[in-house]
Amino acid sequence: MCANVFGVLKSLFGKPFDGGKRMDHGGPQDQPQHPTEHQQPYHPQHPAMMRLYEVQKEVSTLGPQVCTFSGLQNDREYKRMERELTQLLLQVDQVDTEGKLELQGARKRAAQEVEGLLRYLEENASHPSRLAIEELSNAARQLLDERVVAPQRAGGVAEINDELVDALQEIILRLTQIKTEGRVPLRKARYRALTRLCAVQEVLEGRTPQQTLSLPLSGETHEAVNCINQVMVKVSMARSQLLALLMGLSGRDSCAHLSRILTEMQVELDALDVSGNAAIRNYRKQVVEEINGLLKHLDLEGEGDDTRRYDLAQNNSIREIEAVRAHVSHLREGVLRHCVTGDLRCKAELQSLLTHLDQVDTAKNPCIREARRRAVVEVQAVITFLDLREALLRRQPSPDEHPSHRAVWLVLGSLSDLQAQVLGFDGKRADKSYMILEELLTKQLLALDAVDPQGDESTKAARKQAVKFAQNILNYLDMKTDEWEY
């Protein structure tokens, strides 16, 4: 859709517009030998063609805006673009084609292009995923307003604790799971929401430890302490304002205004004479560091305009993760094909891949974190498969082995075979093979539940481990088919 916008003129008229210059039709190569009414190409200066060219220029301007708009239907920008596109559609409809087929075809294609942009704009602004992003963002806004912003504005104390941080983390995880279908506006909307929530989370997490500091110092210690204490009060208010800005809860303040306030605090602290007193210097340093921590989150107004930010397929960390996944896929195929169990070199490669993944820079991006976590699960799935196969081969049960313990090992043998099928599974949840695997794994869990340890401690431990192993296989199968995207 977006790519077509920039080729509208060519698709409409078959040749590029010459910028208004008069074309030379005097040459024989430009004139048909036997012109007819419908064969004669229309001169670019024809009133109808000129009007369509003007419409095309406006479409070329609006097209990129429509293709990157990530808001909702009630946004002012949406209404502006919808209004301008509707006006263009009316202008196209008013073009007089004089009953000529070529002009009618050009007008029809122009109308289809404008209608396509209108449809694309509406589809993205009302897409279920876009509404889900907004719903989660609203839940986060309400949470922060009730616990932080509103109490601070009322002169009270913000309620910042682990419960609040955990609730925000849950919302962030749910945002990462929203499908965008590769649509740029939806990717952009999800990225913007995640960026702001992660910034809020960082501000809150940075604030929590400072509540336990033995600050502020007594004003009798030094004359500069009273000034630092006053700045601390301002910083607390600025923190609340920043959270309100990040979550769209502030109608009057702006990032630029808050940035000026925080910068003035820094200047005020820098002007203090605290020489010769290490405790006060350290106190001022902590306040300055907190101000710097707030300032770094004030550049989010233009966040997400760069495609590389929200199109994670271009992200270097994602590329690293994808390279690891490709290597894991190659190793997994070899393991399943040859049933390798004691190949220490294969295990060493897998362990090195885990180390590599641990070193991937996620830049605190929850989507990259999730991509790395999933890659780690893929590596661990192959390692546990190799470990269990090796354990089954080396197992030498004693004659007096407890019957319940033997029953657990029988289930583990079945789980190993099922895990091989899960590792090689490359379908969807709607596939019959998926349902069969899920049912067979569930039956193994029921079989383990039916094992009676009869007081045997080793059987209890083995059964517990086997249950965890079966659940991990089910979780891995679920992960492989959840159609997660960056």
Provide a quick synopsis of the model.
With 486 residues, the chain is mostly helical.
Describe this structure in words.
The chain has helices at 2-5, 8-13, 47-68, 76-93, 101-125, 128-153, 162-176, 184-207, 223-246, 255-270, 278-295, 307-310, 316-338, 344-358, 366-394, 403-424, 432-450, 457-480. It has 486 residues and is mainly alpha-helical. The protein folds into four domains: 46-126, Up-down Bundle (Methane Monooxygenase Hydroxylase, Chain G, domain 1); 129-212, Up-down Bundle (Methane Monooxygenase Hydroxylase, Chain G, domain 1), CATH 1.20.58; 226-303, BAG domain (Methane Monooxygenase Hydroxylase, Chain G, domain 1, Up-down Bundle), CATH 1.20.58; 313-481, BAG domain (Methane Monooxygenase Hydroxylase, Chain G, domain 1), CATH 1.20.58. The radius of gyration is 32 Å and the shape is flat. It starts with a helix and ends in a 6-residue tail after the last helix. It holds the Pfam family BAG. InterPro entries: BAG_chaperone_regulator, BAG_dom_sf, BAG_domain.
Keywords:
486 residues, Methane Monooxygenase Hydroxylase, Chain G, domain 1, disordered N terminus, 0% strand, mainly alpha
Overall helicity: 55-70%
Radius of gyration: 32 Å
Q: Class of the largest domain in CATH? A: Mainly Alpha
Sheet of most strands: none
CATH-defined superfamily of the largest domain: BAG domain
Instruction: Identify the CATH architecture of the largest domain.
Output: Up-down Bundle
Overall mean pLDDT: 80
Number of strands: 0
**Class of secondary structure makeup:** mainly alpha
- Cα end-to-end separation: 22 Å
How much beta, percentage-wise? under 5%
Indicate the overall shape: flat
H-E order: HHHHHHHHHHHHHHHHHH
Domains, number: 4
How many helices? The count is 18
CATH topology of the largest domain: Methane Monooxygenase Hydroxylase, Chain G, domain 1
Low-confidence regions = 3-41, 208-215
GO cellular component, one term: nucleus
Keywords: Chaperone, Repeat
GO molecular function: adenyl-nucleotide exchange factor activity; protein-folding chaperone binding
GO biological process, one term: regulation of inclusion body assembly
